[in-house]
Amino acid sequence: MLAKELLSLLVCPACKGEVELKGNKLVCKHCGLKYPVKEGIPIMLIEEAEH
Predict the structure, then answer these.
(1) How far apart are alpha carbons 30 and 47 in whole angstroms?
(2) pTM of this prediction?
(3) How many domains would you assign to the chain?
(4) What's the N-to-C CA distance of the chain in angstroms?
(5) Which pLDDT does position 13 carry in this prediction?
(6) Average pLDDT of 21-49?
(7) Pick from 40, 38, 2: which is nearest to 20 by CA?
C-alpha cells in the first residue's frame, strides 16, 4: 500500500499528469498509462507502463 503523502507527490513521467492508485497499478488521469506497483514500490518507468 502506498502512503497518501507519496501518492500526492507522484506524477506520470510521460505527461506529468496526476496519477491515482487502482488495484496494484498507478493510472495517469490524463494520458491513461498504467504503471505497476511491485512489493509496494511504484515502477514509474515509461518502458514499464501499459496503455
Answers:
(1) 18
(2) 0.89
(3) 1
(4) 22
(5) 97
(6) 96
(7) 2
